[in-house]
């Protein structure tokens, strides 16, 4: 497992954490960070994907503000820092950087060229935007925040997209969820699952709202989805 350099489309370079499968060959997944940066949680997700046979790359999306952010959800100060970074983040630039990362992963020795995306929280929104704006082979969102603001793009989804939605998500109120599900129901390549009683980040191991049963279900659905669309 190592850090790699990615060239930004508008100049400059940034890094990403890359985990490789033991076999040395396989499809790829671009893992999209939460608001806490490429921290231990994200790296462990990459490592787990590598154990499943994928090349997994998590790009540092806060590099334009402060490279190398690796904070947790354990203190008020870290939450304040995370929200500060989130407020200063450009989704447009973030998608551009993810597309650059997608290219790097496809060109990585041993990668089959089939590459999907999987994002959490902020990354969940960006995975949706990758489904609408990029040529990723498939995409997965875990409790994406703010998707309802870009539902006019849903019709642009032409490749498989999977969304995990927390019913009690404090950052995605019921009206937003209703709008999202209604829009998704009209797109044939979209599958959406709602997790009753779950709050935001129910799949973040060690998080305040971690729900093992729901996390296990969502993760199994994701594993099946990635296998179907990246290894077929």
* CATH homologous superfamily classification: Alpha/Beta hydrolase fold, catalytic domain
Shape: globular
For the sheet with most strands, the description reads: 8 strands, mixed
- Taken as a percent bin, the fraction of beta residues is 15-25%
In the residues, how many domains can be counted? Answer: 1
Helix content: 25-40%
Count up the helices: 6
CATH topology: Rossmann fold
Strand order of the biggest β-sheet: 1-2-4-3-5-6-7-8
Helix- and strand-based class?
alpha/beta
**H/E topology pattern:** EEEHEHHEHEEHEH
Question: Under the CATH scheme, which class?
Answer: Alpha Beta
End-to-end distance: 26 Å
Mean pLDDT score, rounded?
A: 97
Q: Could you tell me the radius of gyration in angstroms?
A: 16 Å
Number of strands: 8
Low-confidence stretches: none
Please identify, by name, the CATH architecture. Answer: 3-Layer(aba) Sandwich
Question: How is this fold's topology laid out?
Answer:
Layout: E1 2-7, E2 13-19, E3 26-32, H1 40-51, E4 55-59, H2 76-87, H3 91-107, E5 111-120, H4 122-133, E6 139-142, E7 161-166, H5 174-184, E8 190-195, H6 212-230
Parallel strand pairs: 3-4, 3-5, 5-6, 6-7, 7-8
Antiparallel strand pairs: 1-2, 2-4
Helix pairs in contact: 3-4
Quick rundown:
This protein is about 35% helix and about 20% strand. The protein is an alpha/beta fold and about 230 residues long.
Explain what this protein looks like in three dimensions.
- The mean pLDDT is 97.
- The chain is globular.
- The chain has one domain: Rossmann fold (3-Layer(aba) Sandwich), CATH 3.40.50.1820.
- The relative contact order is 0.14.
- Strand 5, helix 4 and strand 6 form a beta-alpha-beta unit.
- It has an 8-stranded mixed β-sheet, with helices on both faces.
- Helix 3 packs across helix 4.
- The two termini are 26 Å apart.
- The chain is α/β, with parallel strands linked by helices.
- The chain contains 6 helices and 8 strands.
């Amino acid at each position: 497992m190592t850090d790699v350099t990615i060239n930004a489309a508008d100049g400059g370079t940034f890094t990403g954490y890359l985990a490789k499968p033991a076999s040395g060959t396989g499809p790829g997944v671009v893992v999209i960070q939460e608001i806490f940066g490429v921290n231990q949680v994200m790296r462990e997700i990459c490592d787990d994907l590598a154990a499943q046979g994928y090349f997994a790359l998590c790009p540092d999306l806060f590099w334009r503000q402060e490279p190398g952010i690796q904070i947790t959800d354990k203190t008020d100060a870290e939450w304040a820092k995370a929200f500060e970074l989130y407020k200063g983040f450009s989704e447009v630039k973030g998608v551009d950087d993810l597309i650059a990362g997608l290219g790097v992963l496809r060109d990585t020795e041993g990668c089959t060229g089939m590459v999907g995306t999987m994002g959490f929280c902020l990354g969940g929104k960006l995975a949706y935007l990758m489904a609408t704006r990029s040529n990723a082979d498939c995409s997965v969102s875990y409790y994406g925040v703010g998707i309802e603001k870009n539902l006019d793009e849903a019709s642009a989804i032409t490749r498989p997209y999977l969304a995990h939605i927390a019913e009690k998500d404090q950052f995605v109120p019921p009206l937003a969820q209703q709008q999202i599900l209604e829009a998704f129901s009209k797109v044939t390549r979209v599958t959406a699952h709602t997790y009753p009683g779950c709050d935001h980040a129910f799949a973040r191991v060690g998080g305040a709202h971690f729900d093992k049963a729901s996390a296990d279900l969502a993760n199994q659905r994701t594993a099946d989805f990635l296998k179907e669309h990246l290894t077929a």
